[in-house]
Structure formats: structure tokens, C-alpha cells
Write a structure and sequence with these properties.
Rhodanese-like domain-containing protein, Rhodanese-like_dom, Rhodanese-like_dom_sf, Oxidized Rhodanese, domain 1, GlpE_sulfurtransferase, alpha/beta
């Protein structure tokens, strides 16, 4: 019985860890090069989900700072009909942000793979 419980626990923990790294369904991933082509387009919303301190230290003109831990509460400030491009430092937080936005009903969410490090 103890062995079965250990196996179940290992499977659940493994699933949780793996699910954190899987891309969200319906989220498009783009490179830094693709992002540069999109910049300046008025029909898109550019969101930087890094902390306010990180954003102040280095940011891209045109990106609005909404830290990941505030995104769910501030998402109503965004237009669900427009594309939302999310960016962070490495691509991990923006991937989480994309999942949050999809769960909140945003249809067109784009993640910048590699984040600021990939630019």
C-alpha cells in the first residue's frame, strides 16, 4: 500500500512540474526578431510582466508594466479583442502570464520566447 501511495505521489508531483513548463493552449510563441517586426502596431497590447524594479531598470518603449502578481487583478484594463503580447526577463513568467490571460478569456495571446534575454 505504501508503494502505491509513493507511486501516486511521484506521478502527481511530476505532472505538476511538467505542466509548469508546457506552453498554454492557444498561445503563440514568437522570437525577439518577430517582436521587433510587431512593435508600433496600434492593434496590439504590449505587456511587460516583470517587477516594477526590473521594468524601471530596462524596458522596451511601448510596453506597459503589469507585474505577473498583479495581472489577474488588472486584466480588466486590457481589451480582450486585441492581441496581447507578453514579455518578461527569460520567458518563464510571460508563459505563466499567457496562461492567466487565456483563463480570463483573452483569445489572442502571444508570448515572447526567451524574454528580454532573447532580444
Amino acid at each position: 500500500m505504501k508503494t502505491i501511495l509513493n507511486i501516486i505521489l511521484i506521478v502527481l508531483v511530476s505532472w505538476f512540474i511538467i505542466s509548469r513548463f508546457l506552453p498554454a493552449r492557444g498561445v503563440k510563441n514568437i522570437s525577439g526578431k518577430e517582436l521587433k517586426r510587431m512593435m508600433g502596431q496600434n492593434n496590439k497590447q504590449f505587456i511587460d510582466v516583470r517587477t516594477a524594479g526590473e521594468y524601471r531598470g530596462n524596458n522596451i518603449k511601448g510596453f506597459r508594466n503589469i507585474p505577473l502578481n498583479e495581472l489577474a487583478n488588472k486584466a480588466q484594463q486590457l481589451d480582450k479583442q486585441k492581441e496581447v503580447i507578453v514579455l518578461c526577463q527569460s520567458g518563464m513568467r510571460s508563459k505563466q502570464a499567457a496562461k492567466v490571460l487565456k483563463k480570463l478569456g483573452f483569445q489572442h495571446v502571444i508570448n515572447v520566447s526567451g524574454g528580454m534575454n532573447g532580444l
